[in-house]
């Protein structure tokens, strides 16, 4: 698997179909592996947090979630040409699971949200086998871990926000013995209809960030990370 590195953080040079093929391989091999979504904000945070950087790089697959990562790859002559967003990957994995019989477990989000999202996904993908659902407000972690082990899913989606969800995954993945684990952030809120996503045209044009900025103008400080990230990437390229 070809990986590119930006400011010390790995990103897989894979498109959506290639990631889904890797998902099949991971489930077939049954070796616990996890997927993490990479965007400029995470990469910049990892500059000041070695533990976070090591966490991101320890993933089996680092998907190019942010448009800034695509731009950085183009500027560096890399191979990444399209985003693989976490929510789109989750939905595509669920579609594949419905066709191949993979068992899915959903953990996280506020009470009721995961159930609502699961209902939407099961209506969309007939035959999708969701074997377990737990919200993220549990008090007994061992109880949750035991339930997951008992249900023995092929895929575990964890919605706790990043990087909390990734730390939870890496701390527990060996004892859970689930082949594929993936942090999905706020995807359940979108799938359940609690939060509206950008129109498809804006997503295809890589302008989802602009839609979110218009809807949530207080996010401007987070959006300002993108030009800083690209400047650092260019500087690193010319310093080599």
Question: How is this structure best described in words?
Answer:
The protein is of the alpha/beta class. The chain has a single domain, classed as Rossmann fold (3-Layer(aba) Sandwich), CATH 3.40.50. It is 53% helix and 16% strand. The chain is built from 13 helices and eight strands. It has helices at 16-29, 40-47, 50-57, 67-75, 86-100, 113-124, 141-151, 164-176, 187-191, 200-204, 208-215, 220-223, 225-239; strands at 3-6, 9-12, 33-38, 61-64, 103-108, 129-134, 155-159, 180-183. Strands 4-3-8-7-5-6 form a six-stranded parallel sheet, with helices on both faces. Strand 5 (103-108), helix 6 and strand 6 (129-134) form a beta-alpha-beta unit. Helix 2 packs across helix 13 (225-239). The two termini are 24 Å apart. The model has no long low-confidence stretch (mean pLDDT 92). Belongs to the glycosyltransferase 26 family. TagA/TarA subfamily. Its EC number is 2.4.1.187. Keywords: Cell wall biogenesis/degradation, Glycosyltransferase, Teichoic acid biosynthesis, Transferase. It holds the Pfam family Glyco_tran_WecG. Pathway: Cell wall biogenesis; teichoic acid biosynthesis.
Compile the SSE list and pairings.
Layout: E1 3-6, E2 9-12, H1 16-29, E3 33-38, H2 40-47, H3 50-57, E4 61-64, H4 67-75, H5 86-100, E5 103-108, H6 113-124, E6 129-134, H7 141-151, E7 155-159, H8 164-176, E8 180-183, H9 187-191, H10 200-204, H11 208-215, H12 220-223, H13 225-239
Parallel strand pairs: 3-4, 3-8, 5-6, 5-7, 7-8
Antiparallel strand pairs: 1-2
Enzyme class: transferase
Pathway: Cell wall biogenesis; teichoic acid biosynthesis
Protein name: N-acetylglucosaminyldiphosphoundecaprenol N-acetyl-beta-D-mannosaminyltransferase
